[in-house]
Design brief:
Elements (H helix, E strand, L loop, with lengths): L8 E17 L2 E15 L2 E6 L13 H18 L8 H4 L7 H18 L4 H5 L6 E2 L2 E3 L5 H14 L4 E4 L6 H10 L5 E4 L9 H6 L8 E2 L7 H10 L4 E3 L6 H10 L4 E4 L7 H13 L3 E4 L6 H10 L23 E2 L9 E2 L10 E2 L1 H7 E7 L2
Parallel strand pairs: 5-6, 6-7, 7-8, 8-9, 9-10, 10-11
Antiparallel strand pairs: 1-2, 1-15, 2-3, 4-13, 12-14
Bound molecules: magnesium ion.
């Protein structure tokens, strides 16, 4: 594949899309999706990337404001100054910037898309993945009542999702899980606490072992691999780490300590597709199950997550579900749709396979800047 000789311009777009229904987790409720997009231009071809950061530093320390600043001042100028670029160069070019993986991933994703489009290959092939459909899972936020939760789970089952994840937090956990399990005894079911519990909650978390869960995602604090290892030793249910895994080294440490048996890879959280691919390969080689999480991405990030899941190592259904669950109108065509058997096809064509709809981008845009060499 040929490198990108040089970039003519980079753009930062901030979009704000209304969600079809509010999404609630242990750290708060979202009514809109606000996302930072990166567009890279070279010789009439454009590549797009999306940051998974949120407006507030609740899931991670990055925010849309820090992402824009790090892109504007550091990452995009470095890309604009480089020649003969491939996406594999991005981690090296970005190495002076500590942390800020979501900003790095947005720029790296745009370079992957641009590079694949210029070489007329689909993103999954550029990544080394297989042409295959992706089994879809669903993530259901905290609901106002147990009845609403049961109705949402019933809808997910009817739609054909391959597994259902429900969010839990302290005070909204054991009774809810019991209700869901009683109504859906054979459902592939898991819970996600988004780091809401502490070691004082071990007795409660151990009681969740009774409900035959596929896994328990991120029960404890992000930085606490030690306590996750103590918890995993007390549980039959596999622990899955999400927020705790920021790098391949984190995955290696978690495996060595016995902190988890499953990893939720969000490529945005780990700094991009190359890092995600390395963690998936580590999981495959060390008996860890791996799947791809979601951050309510627009169609740009949603397509990237689909391509990523064609790689070896992604052994469980991820959180990529139909666009219509989240958005009335997305900024790209085509929307992600579920086949009747709960699988999603990879968008066809070069790069990510999705196309920006300019009118919708304009309508949902709340910020735009152009950066030139
Ligand atoms: Mg999670």
């Amino acid at each position: 594949m040929n490198p990108v000789p040089r970039l003519e311009a980079a753009e930062i777009h901030v979009v704000r899309l209304p969600l079809v229904s509010p999404f609630t987790t242990s750290f708060g409720t979202q009514t809109h999706k606000e996302a930072v997009l990166v567009c890279l231009r070279s010789d009439g071809t454009t590549g797009w990337g999306e940051s998974t950061a949120m407006p507030d530093p609740f899931y991670s320390y990055e925010t849309n404001t820090t992402v824009c600043q790090v892109l504007r001042l550091y990452l995009l100028p470095v890309l604009l100054a480089a020649t003969d670029l491939t996406p594999m160069d991005a981690p090296h070019l970005f190495r002076r910037v500590r942390g800020h993986p979501m900003a790095k991933a947005a720029a790296e994703n745009a370079l992957w898309d641009l590079w694949a489009r210029r070489n007329d290959v689909p993103l999954f092939a550029a990544l080394g993945g297989m042409a295959r459909r992706i089994p879809s899972g669903i993530s259901i936020g905290l609901q106002d009542s147990p009845e609403r939760l049961l109705a949402a789970v019933a809808d997910a089952c009817a739609a054909g999702y391959h597994r259902v994840k429900i969010k839990i937090k302290r005070g909204q956990d054991e009774a809810l899980v019991r209700e869901v399990r009683r109504s859906f005894p054979a459902l592939p079911l898991m819970v996600d606490a988004n780091a809401d519990y502490t070691p004082a909650d071990f007795p409660l978390l151990q009681r969740l072992d009774d409900f035959n869960l596929m896994m328990m995602e991120q029960p404890l604090a992000e930085g606490d691999l030690f306590q996750h290892a103590r918890l995993q030793a007390r549980l039959r249910t596999p622990v899955c780490l999400d927020e705790s895994i920021g790098t391949l080294s984190d995955a290696e440490a978690a495996h060595a300590l016995g902190s988890c048996r499953v990893i939720n890879i969000k490529q945005g959280r780990v700094g991009g597709l190359q890092a995600a691919r390395a963690i998936a390969a580590f999981g495959l080689g060390h008996g860890l199950d791996v799947w791809s999480g979601g951050m309510l991405e627009t169609g740009i990030g949603r397509a990237v997550n689909l391509h990523l899941q064609t790689l070896p190592g992604f052994s469980l259904p991820g959180d990529t579900s139909a666009t219509a669950r989240y958005f009335g109108e997305d900024i790209v065509d085509r929307p992600v749709e579920l086949d009747a058997d709960g699988f999603i096809g990879i968008p066809p064509g070069p790069g990510s396979g999705v196309a920006i709809v300019p009118d919708r981008l304009r309508r949902f845009c709340v910020g735009h800047e152009v950066i030139t060499p």
